[in-house]
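Colleagues,

For the teaching module next term, I've prepared a clean inverse folding example: a structure given as tokens, and then the sequence designed for it. I'd like students to try predicting residues themselves before seeing the answer, so please don't circulate the second half yet.
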């Protein structure tokens, strides 16, 4: 049974933003990959970088980290504070601009 995950793509100040909420793991990585691919293509066609908003995600596994690594040249990540150590230890923060979500976004 897939873990709960919602994915929405929006524009904010002309930037493409992929907003994820729930948990990202092997059970729903295909949906996450498809959303990342579509949003990266949309952002790239307008000459921009995709913002991946993970402020409502409290768990992601190695499949999700690999999906982010695969698009490292094209994304900026906003992450829930609980994810920051994982993204740092994985080395993603050395390749991608990652910022912690504002505290209000974590509720």
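(Answer key — instructors only)
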């Amino acid at each position: 049974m897939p873990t709960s995950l919602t994915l929405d793509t929006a524009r904010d100040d002309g930037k493409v933003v992929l907003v994820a909420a729930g948990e990202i793991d092997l059970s729903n990585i295909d949906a996450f990959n498809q959303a990342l691919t579509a949003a990266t293509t949309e952002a790239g066609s307008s000459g921009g970088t995709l913002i991946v908003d993970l402020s409502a995600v409290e768990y992601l596994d190695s499949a999700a980290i690999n999906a982010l690594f695969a698009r490292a040249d094209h994304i900026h990540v906003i992450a829930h504070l609980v994810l920051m150590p994982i993204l740092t230890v994985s080395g993603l923060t050395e390749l991608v601009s990652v910022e912690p979500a504002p505290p209000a976004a974590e509720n």
